[in-house]
Amino acid sequence: MTKRYSLGTVAAAGLVLALACITVNIYFPEATVKQAAAEIVEEIRKDEAAKKAPQAALEAPALREAPSFSLVPAAYAQDATSVSTPAIRALKDSMKSRFPSLKPYFDAGNIGETNKGMLEVRDETGLNLQAKAALRNLVKDENSDRARLYAEVAQALNIEASQIERIQVIFAAEWAKSAMSGWWIQQEDGTWVKKS
Question: How far apart are the C-alpha atoms of 19 and 183, rounded to whole Å?
Answer without folding.
Answer: 51
